[in-house]
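In the lab's daily routine, each protein ends up as an entry in a very long ledger. A line of letters takes care of the sequence, but it says nothing directly about the fold. The fold becomes a row of whole numbers, each drawn from a learned catalogue of backbone shapes. The protein below has been through that process, and both of its lines are reproduced in full:
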Amino acid sequence: MLFGKNDHLIGLDIGSRSLKAAEIVETKKGLSLKRFGIVDIPPGAIEDGTVKNPETVAESIRHLFKAYNFKENNVAVSIGGYSVIVKKINVQTMEEAQLQETIHFEA
């Protein structure tokens, strides 16, 4: 299961020049990409990982979801910038509860 009890998840990546969204669905055969969409953000709306114009970004997100027919409420959001710290960890196959505990410990 992806996150919680829902079998759909939308990943929303907020970049400095565009918004990208992908919906994945859990099926009997595994995870499957249901739809993907991308829209450009007006220049200056996001600079150096900081949202300078939240109204414009919010409108762009609404446009992205409407244009590509995203209807799911279960959304994981990503926004990059200089203050973002990335740490790669290796984990073994384990139950979801144990995985959550391991990720929390590593963080």
About this structure: Residues 54-67 form the longest helix (14 residues). The first strand starts at residue 8 and ends at 14. The mean pLDDT is 84.
